[in-house]
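F.,

This is the one I mentioned.
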């Protein structure tokens, strides 16, 4: 198994949007992104309820987006609870998804409706959500990272072009 991000020194990673890997499949390329909301091993991670709520909101955002629904393969939480994975169709770079993630985090920061799919028949642990802390975490990432993305927030240290 080659998981590209395992080969990177997590002690020096920052927050940001990073290409984790690219896979060639029958009809083209799939790009996996690490949406890293916390500095690994140096910041408190998010709790499971927040990760779970972000998963529901981020999936809803992309699955219902007029342009991105068709390109979205998967979004889901990192087991280390420092961020999210997102897989899209296409050979993409971080700059190609910066705007859509700004839109996504803005959507999640201001979400005020009933949480999508948070019902027993639609979710494996429907009581384990925390929308209010999710909104705080999403606004923090949007303001502190997405609003001022630099090269070091979009390219992993050992990646060279
Ligand atoms: Zn769920």
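My design for it:
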């Amino acid at each position: 198994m080659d998981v590209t991000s395992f080969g990177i020194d997590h002690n020096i990673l920052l927050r940001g949007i990073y290409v984790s890997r690219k896979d060639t499949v029958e009809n083209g390329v799939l790009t996996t992104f690490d949406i890293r909301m916390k500095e690994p091993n140096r910041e408190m991670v998010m709790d499971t309820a927040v990760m779970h709520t972000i998963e529901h909101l981020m999936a809803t955002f992309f699955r219902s987006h007029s342009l991105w629904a068709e390109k979205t393969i998967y979004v889901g939480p990192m087991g280390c609870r420092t961020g999210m994975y997102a897989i899209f169709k296409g050979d993409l770079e971080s700059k190609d998804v910066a705007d859509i993630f700004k839109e996504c985090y803005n959507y999640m920061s201001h979400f005020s409706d009933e949480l999508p799919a948070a019902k027993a028949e639609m979710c494996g642990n429907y009581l384990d959500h925390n929308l209010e802390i999710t909104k705080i975490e999403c606004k923090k990432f949007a303001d502190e990272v997405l609003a001022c993305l630099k090269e070091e927030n979009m390219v992993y240290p050992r990646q060279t072009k």
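Residues 48-63 form the longest helix (16 residues).

Talk soon.
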